[in-house]
Amino acid sequence: MTTQKKTKVPWAAIAWGIAGAGLLVRAIRHPFRSVVRDGYASRCSGGSPCSESMGIESMRGVAPVYSVVPGRVLRVEGQRIVLASSNEPVVVFYSGDLQSMVVAGDAVGLGQTIAAGSSIQFAVSELVRQADGRVEEQVLEPAAWLAARGLSISAKSNVTDATGERWCEAGRKLVIPEQVRSSCEIRLPKPPGFALLPVSSTME
Fold first, then answer.
1. Residue 147 φ/ψ, nearest 5 degrees
2. Fewer C-beta neighbours within 10 Å, C or N terminus of the chain?
3. Quick check: is 25 in a domain?
4. Could you give the percent of the chain with pLDDT greater than 70?
5. CATH no. for residue 154?
6. pLDDT of 190
7. Where would I find the H helices in the chain?
8. pLDDT in tens, 70-103
9. Residue from 78, 75, 71 nearest 97 by CA
10. The predicted structure's pLDDT at residue 124
11. Helix, strand, coil distribution of the chain in percent, nearest 5
């Protein structure tokens, strides 16, 4: 009588292979996980007077502006575009010298071109249901929200002042000035349920 030798299944290798394949498919389908293709932060949130948005300038003049959420277009008002995410209860706002390529009601995908522009203001709000049933918007720090979800300001890195006034260019290791919260009542976003790379957003 012969006995069969049990073969060990390399679960770790299989899991990493699946994760890698998923990232490859995502990269092919949505190559730009950023607000713009080639730009830089001209202004971070906060300041005086307080601004809930961050400013982004394109390095190429008028260039594509991308959706950072899958979801639906809530409003297009002049040069302002408002998107509702289908992944989490957040609304993202784009404004500036935008030439919209979408209309209210359109479904959008992550990485889809929604406008063209050279100067963009980007903001994020979370929809929070209150005990009495009302839904209120809570402003989130936009650069921290992008970083926590593996998104970025620009697909091409253009860091000009990551440790100074434009701290929001620091990518996945943000140190947010305390005045952003104290003067603007802006909150840090909750981390997503799953992240492949570490993200650190702290206020000091």
1. -60, -40
2. N
3. no
4. 75
5. 2.70.70.10
6. 73
7. 11-29, 142-148, 178-184
8. 999 999 998 999 999 999 999 999 999 999 999 9
9. 78
10. 96
11. 20, 40, 45
